Each structure stands twice: as C-alpha cells, then as structure tokens.
Amino acid sequence: MAVHYCGLCRRTSFSGRRHLYSAAHRRRLQEALARLQEEVAAARAAAAAAAAEEDDEEGDGGVAVRPYDPAEHDRRVWCLCCGRGVRRDGRRGGLALPQAGLLQHLAGAEHRRETARFWRENRAEAALRERFLVPAEEYERFARALERALAAHQRREEERIRQMAAGIREAERRQRETVQAALQLQMEPELCVGPSV
Ligand SMILES: [Zn+2]
Ligand SMILES: [Zn+2]
C-alpha cells in the first residue's frame, strides 16, 4: 500500500499519489492558490503603480512610504509554494515599505524553484504558474521606484526640519524684541524724569 502525506490537506493518504487527483485535494489546492494569488495580485498592482511614475524624475516614485507600525507592517503572507510565511512589507529604519518584502520573495530564485516543484508535485494548471511569479525586470523597476520614494521622503523630512528650525529662530527673535521693548518702556520714564530733578 502506497502511503503519501499531503502537506496541503495535512493528512496521510493510503491511496498514494492518487490522492493528488482526488476532488477534495483539488478543491483545497484551488482555494489555497486563490488566496495566494490575491496577495500576489495586490503586490504586483503596487509595483505597477510605482513603475507608472518611473519616468517622472521629480515624482516620489509612486510608493507610499510611511512610518513603520508593527501592528500593520509585521504581517506575513503564507507562501504555499515555499511552505513558509513571508513578510509582506519591507522596512528601512523607521519607515515601512509596503509590499516590498513579498515582491522581493516572489521575484527570487528560491520562490521560482519552489513554485516549479509545487506545480509538478500538485499537478497544478501550468498556465496559472506565471501569475505566482514576479519577473526580475518588474521587481527591479519597483526597487528603483522605491529608492526614489525614499529619497523624496528624505528631502521632505529635511525641508520640514529646516522650516521648523526657521520657525523657532523667528519665535526667538520676536521674544527678544518684546523683551527689549519692555525694557525700554521701563527706562524711558526715568530718562524723562532725570533732567527736571
Ligand atoms: Zn491533499
Ligand atoms: Zn514562495
């Protein structure tokens, strides 16, 4: 009797690899692939939006970098093909890079290899496989847009700090003027009184 353990269904089958053709397994496979495909589609849409602004040198790269919030950005996506959780967002210092982690994974050699293996083992539909991969040039365009977005963010931060410093200097100047004016008011009556005594 051929025994086969199916990681997807999490059960041992005594019909061996014929289990892979069973209706229950096919249904689970389709459900799991649909879930992953949704995540892949969202990541690729983010990459496409970023790349759309690629030619705009003055643009911010179309990537929304924002402060890193563990509750939102520590999220992992289960990669069915590699059998492990993948961090969806990237991180640079205190900033979150939405979808950067997942895109890097989907464009990587490990994922490409494991996806081929998974497809072979599960007899998944060959035509669908490309939907689970990110071509290298697509990822490179995204990575370039990401760098531009980070540079634009840095410029905005520096400008904000420069304006804040200018605001503080201006407030200090006004305070000095107010103090000087008050001192002068105190001194003036004495000056007036002086000669008549
Ligand atoms: Zn199964
Ligand atoms: Zn993977």
TrEMBL record:
<feature type="coiled-coil region">
    <location>
        <begin position="136"/>
        <end position="188"/>
    </location>
</feature>
<dbReference type="InterPro" id="IPR028015">
    <property type="entry name" value="CCDC84-like"/>
</dbReference>
<protein>
    <recommendedName>
        <fullName>Coiled-coil domain containing 84</fullName>
    </recommendedName>
</protein>
<feature type="region of interest" description="Disordered">
    <location>
        <begin position="48"/>
        <end position="67"/>
    </location>
</feature>
<keyword id="KW-0175">Coiled coil</keyword>
<dbReference type="Pfam" id="PF14968">
    <property type="entry name" value="CCDC84"/>
</dbReference>
